[in-house]
Amino acid sequence: MRDVASADVVDRFFAACNAHDSDLLGRCFASNVAAVGPDGQAESREEVVSYYAVIWTAVPDMRFTVWQTIVEGEEVAATALGTGTHTGPLLITGGDLVPGTGRRISIRCCWVFTVEQGLIVSYHLFYDQLEMYAQLGLPMPGGGTPW
User: Where would I find the SnoaL-like domain in this sequence (predicted)?
Assistant: First the structure.
């Protein structure tokens, strides 16, 4: 059964991401939201919004197309495809800053959110970093190849 309140918050999250609207995005999160992803973790609303602002600078046409949302009470899982063109500096796992490559990316992503009282209080983000490195034409971490 779909919990409308939890699903609506996640819908607002994706709408804010696609609009690149920091204010709207911030209103989706509790002040002490805990977020974990391949790039590290954030422990406040400001840190989470800052993370997405960096992404929007690096990929100014970034959009998420939501494929599926599964809701179970306060828990919401969403799969999506993130697409855009990498034109600005991008901070990648390990702390390296990659200048814009001009390459298009199409990355499969999954978020698992916890929503309480109409706000996202935590989430985990998963995406295939190897897929992103390959699409950007970057060397594999550690100098190896994926095969």
Answer: 10-123
- Judge contact between 30 and 116, C-beta under 8 A: yes
Residue at 141 is within a domain: no
Domains identified in the chain, total number: 1
Note whether residue 111 is domain-resident.
yes
Q: Which residues are CB-contacts of 59 (< 8 A; sequence separation ≥ 6)?
A: 84, 85, 86, 87, 88, 90, 105
Q: What is the pLDDT of residue 92?
A: 84
Range of the domain at 119: 4-136
State which residues of the chain have pLDDT below 50: 1-2, 147
The pTM of this model reads 0.91
User: Residue 146: inside a domain, yes or no?
Assistant: no
Q: Which helix (H) or strand (E) holds 116?
A: strand 104-116
Q: What is the CA radius of gyration of the chain?
A: 15
CATH no. for residue 65?
A: 3.10.450.50
* H/E stretch holding 14: helix 4-19
% of the chain residues with pLDDT over 70: 93
